[in-house]
Design brief:
By secondary structure, this protein is α+β, with helices and mostly antiparallel strands. It has one domain: Alpha-Beta Plaits (2-Layer Sandwich), CATH 3.30.70. It has three helices and five strands, in the order βαβββαβα. Strands 1, 2, 3, 4 and 5 form a five-stranded antiparallel beta sheet that branches. β3 and β4 form a beta hairpin.
Length: 105
């Protein structure tokens, strides 16, 4: 995994408004090239010994590996959850033109 890899970062958010604010803030800071917001979904998790059920959306970023740590820090600082669900994967297959766009080449 290198800074020249393409990454997908997924962040669960309590609402479309929160996801959009984090997404736009990341774009404005140059931390990602694009984001999507999923349809609302049911989420269940164990928190401090209690089963929690909520509705959430997923904020999905596409970005260069060099920006992932800064994106994590920014998203965590803007997120209303005490421990936000922020996950990342490298993408092994990407259209070459889209890869160049994401990496700024």
């Amino acid at each position: 995994m290198t800074d020249n890899d393409v990454w997908l970062v997924i962040i669960n958010c309590p609402s479309t408004e929160v996801a959009d604010a984090i997404g736009k803030g990341a774009l404005e800071r140059g931390l990602a090239k694009a984001f999507n917001i999923s349809a609302e979904m049911q989420t269940s998790y164990l928190w401090k010994g209690e089963v929690i059920q909520n509705r959430e959306v997923q904020l999905i970023f596409k970005l260069a590996g060099k920006d992932r740590k800064a994106l994590f820090e920014f998203a965590k600082s803007q997120h209303p959850f005490e421990v936000p669900s922020i996950k990342a994967w490298t993408i092994t297959e990407v259209d070459p033109d889209y890869r160049r766009y994401l990496l700024g080449e």
